[in-house]
Specification:
Blueprint lengths: L3 H42 L24 H13 L5 H12 L5 H20 L3 E6 L8 E5 L1
Helix pairs in contact: 2-3, 3-4
Amino acid sequence: MAETHVVSGLAAKRSELTGQIEHYHTLIKRLTADVAHIDAALKIFSPDFDLRTVRSKAYRTRVSIFRHGDALVQVLDVMREAGEPMTSSQIAETLLAKRGESSGEADYNCAGKHVNNALHRLEKKSLVRISGNLPGKGKGQHLWALV
């Protein structure tokens, strides 16, 4: 027999996901109507305009933990405070903890990508270097140290 706490947890998660699906269906309908209005306006101003030539632009969400150009400075600050080599995951965790907000997996993954990109940019500027790998993780995670 199934555990009641497992069943209730799964039911709650299902409810959350179906709510998100409904929200995104509504959003898709609204955006489709907006595109149709823009297409009509384009046809009014330029009847010969071929709408098929307009490619869709990639949608990217912004990370709220970094302002433009702020990631490099924050990564260097965390590494200076630590005083020892760190992985990009450790740096991302520290940055999220400093913000004092409860962060979900999406925030963590996004912050990790930004930290990793920042570390590679700092490496090109000769401000950080790879000092080794963290053992026991397959290929391992790089340990980054200040130069």
